[in-house]
Amino acid sequence: MQQLTLPAPAKLNLFLHILGRRVDGYHQLQTLFQFLDLADDITITVRDDGKLNLLTPFAGLADCDNLAIKAAKILQSATSTSLGADISIHKCLPMGGGVGGGSSNAATVLHGLNILWQTHLSNEKLAELGLQLGADVPVFVHGQAAWAEGVGEQLTPVVLPEPWFILVKPNCHISTAEIFQHPDLTRDSDPITVAAYLQRGARNDCEAIVRKRYPEVDKVFKLLNNLAPTRLTGTGACLFAEFADKNSAERAFKQLPDDLQAFLARGCNQSILHKHLQSRTNSI
Ligand SMILES: C[C@@](CO)(OP(=O)(O)O)[C@H](O)COP(=O)(O)OP(=O)(O)OC[C@H]1O[C@@H](n2ccc(N)nc2=O)[C@H](O)[C@@H]1O
Ligand SMILES: Nc1ncnc2c1ncn2[C@@H]1O[C@H](COP(=O)(O)OP(=O)(O)O)[C@@H](O)[C@H]1O
User: Which domains does the chain have, with CATH numbers?
Assistant: First the structure.
């Protein structure tokens, strides 16, 4: 087999608590990751000459900085394969929005090339390689909704309700590093348990600062929160409102102004990448 097309889904941070800060500046978190059935599509074709080409360059981002290419390079050097690849990314996920598109692209490329190059690395090894690219890559590699601790890399799979969401990307770009450096960020939240989250919910500690720094986020937050309980994902800028069923989500979606970048999606405990990989394995 020489070519594969695989999805690279979005994630939500259903809540995000910051418990402290490590000496290296990274923050200790507690968060709950769930996937959405909303995804980029990535097509990978094997090359014999070892070259790694991105056929769909992103405006303003050098190909060598694209996480899809970085993931391919890491796998290439970890396995010493002589093979290369052409990679095309059909982008659907808002970039820099806290839905993890770049990390998800990296995880999908790791899985796709591991199949095409027949390098046979375990999920654990792929997650270890992915962590070098970003704190969120391992959860996409494993593909199970997860309770996360540490800097987001200590994962415990969980089974959660799978509600419907309206996801909105306010028209602004937020730097993750900038939010984590903010002097007013809450860094001393008490740890909680999954059971406590399921009973009472929990906040996103970045939300107050992001809403204050970015009026556009605050405006969209108020609009969505009138329709259903709303949260920031990650460090933003995307906001999500939760609905128990598809009909109520659709009704609310119709009330949104036309100029908003909004998506209707379902929460998934198994990433659609992994559903796809499983159905491939079953059909072989
Ligand atoms: C906090 C989360 C929640 O999902 O935010 P989003 O990026 O999704 O919004 C992620 O873990 C982010 O992961 P990712 O975007 O991969 O972050 P990285 O590239 O590893 O780090 C970007 C910058 O954020 C800060 N950072 C990141 C993670 C962390 N636990 N503590 C930090 O202080 C560091 O300053 C780092 O330089
Ligand atoms: N394949 C990729 N898709 C999206 N962003 C990428 C990719 N490769 C590198 N990036 C960079 O990573 C940044 C964060 O992207 P993304 O993962 O979409 O956001 P977030 O971490 O906020 O969820 C982008 O602004 C972009 O500069």
Answer: 3-158 (3.30.230.10), 164-268 (3.30.70.890)
